[in-house]
Amino acid sequence: MCDARRVDNPGQTVSATEFAALTGVSRERLRTWERRHGYPVPVRVQGGARRYPVADVARVVGIRRAVEAGVPLTVAVRAQPGPPEEPIGLQAAAALAEHAPLAVVALSGPDPLVVRSVNAIVAARPDAPRPGDDLLQLAPWYAEDPGYATLKRLFTDEIMAAPCTHPDWTGSLRPGAQSLAYRLPHELGRPPLVALIGIDTARERRTRHLLQQAEAELTRLREELERDRAFAAAAGAVADIFRTQAGAQTLADATTALVRRLGAVDAGLAPTMGGALVLGRSARGLLGPDLVTIARFDDLADALREGSPAWMPPAVGAAFGAPAGLELLVAPLLAASDSLGALLLLFDEQSALTEAGERLLRVTSGTIALALVRERVAGELQDPGR
Q1: Cα dihedral angle (85, 86, 90, 94), rounded to 10 degrees?
Q2: Nearest to 52 by CA among 63, 42, 64
Q3: What CATH architecture is 103-199?
Q4: Class of CATH domain 209-382
Q5: Cα–Cα distance between 34 and 22 in angstroms, integer?
Q6: Tens digits of per-residue pLDDT, 243-280?
Q7: The whole model's pTM is what?
């Protein structure tokens, strides 16, 4: 695991959830990239929350797109972005308007006012005007609108730019849309052009805010689904191990499989003995060996008594030897309502357990508990006097 830098001022960083939404790379995958390839490296603000530099967004997006195009992740991460070309070029310059998040329309005029170009956001609207359309034929009422007079002045007078009203760029062509209109440099042999760029109205800002909220919720649901799939894969892997193997080594194999399938930092099993959890060596050696008295920690005692997986406070993690900054998830090992101990899972950060995720974790810990019972019975049969 890469050491996280700690800063006091998060001014140029965003949260892990925001960074995932900006880049299209889930928080779990970002942590996997960090562990395996050393990039991107988050910063830690006071309180320990992960944040990512805004300056890393472009490179992470570039890595994602390279991987989607078939480039091996190792190669994509190691590739350094080159300096931007100067100038950006005609194709990129045209793309500035084409892909702008606001409506951009170019009109020739002054009489008639003809649509010459629309960008992608306008073209995507239902029955939007197309290049070659006469604006007054589409919306005759516009001849009486003050915005029409403003546009004509941009073609004929010395003014270079002015706000103006115009028809909404949809099939309805309703009045009330607003843009900043400005005259473009006139090329000899071509009609003069005026460009209109949509003004960011309060309604549009509200709409965009709602869209951002919806996208953030979609990102959260995708992350939950990805975690649930990981829990399902882990439950299946553990079941396969105990179905095809026997002996004490199966328990070590199960914890190793959990680390791999869940993207965990470490995992270990702590059987109950005399009111304490006895933890041997964990899968990656970050936990234990330790003997932790259950009654010392109310959160731990509650989780074991209720039989419910739960995140532990830092003091419990520290008691099991967890390094500072990592989060401990405890899943009780229950067999026929008997508490046999706990499954300990160590992660980079906490994440909400969905109902499905909690159920799958119960299945996994229950499978391990049955395996513990099986090993105990096998040992007693081999040594009846024990």
Answers
A1: 80
A2: 42
A3: 2-Layer Sandwich (3.30)
A4: alpha beta
A5: 17
A6: 887 777 888 899 999 999 999 999 999 999 989 999 98
A7: 0.48
